[in-house]
Amino acid sequence: MPTRTSLPRRPRWLVPAALLALCLVPLLAGVLRAVQLAGGPEVAVPDARFSADPLPVALHVVAATVFGFLGALQFLPGRRALRPRWHRLAGRVVVPAGLVVAVSGVWMVAGYPYAANGGPGLSTLRLVVATALAVFLVLGVVAILRGDVRAHRAWMIRAYALALGAGTQVLTLGLPAVLLGPPGPTANALLHGLGWGINLAVAEWAIRGSAPSTAAVPRRAVPTGTAA
């Protein structure tokens, strides 16, 4: 009988570790900014916009930290399968945190003046992404309440991909800035959009790659007998 060769399995911690690494730099920058706004040492260039109204920034940083770290742990396959109660309880924290990220993002766009290399293009893009993040989270909750685990997982992956946009933007903004200098408002908006676009493309690839295939479903063996 032909034997089926099994592919080497990835370590279960690899995906959560990669996600945590991706969100580490922007989260660290946000935490340092929040500490500075709370009266701590000046570790970043002061921003008068945030100093005048620190509340939306503080909410955004705290919620993004919770969403980023707890959300990454939700992708541990063993934890979902062996500890479904933990997965559900963590989800009840992750979803509100993600909604706070979205709402505080809209608040900052509406309440703060443009940054030096900002503009209406980047602000519009941020409003679209924040709205999409909230919609994806709500659709994920609605799906799991209907018992549709597959749709729930897909919507939550998309939401998490948008929330991790800042991690990818460290690369899409940082590399061109090193090579070509700081981008202008239009290029800045395009490079931000590229970061979110890359994340969504990877999310769709992950969703489709994990979808069950009809060819992969084992068939029930049919008993055979000898002819009389």
From TrEMBL:
A Pfam family reported for this protein in Swiss-Prot or TrEMBL: DUF2306
UniProt-listed InterPro entries: DUF2306_membrane
Signal peptide: none
Keywords in alphabetical order: Membrane, Transmembrane, Transmembrane helix
Ranges that cross the membrane: 57-77, 89-115, 127-145, 157-180
Top-level lineage group: Bacteria
Name of the featured protein: Putative membrane protein DUF2306
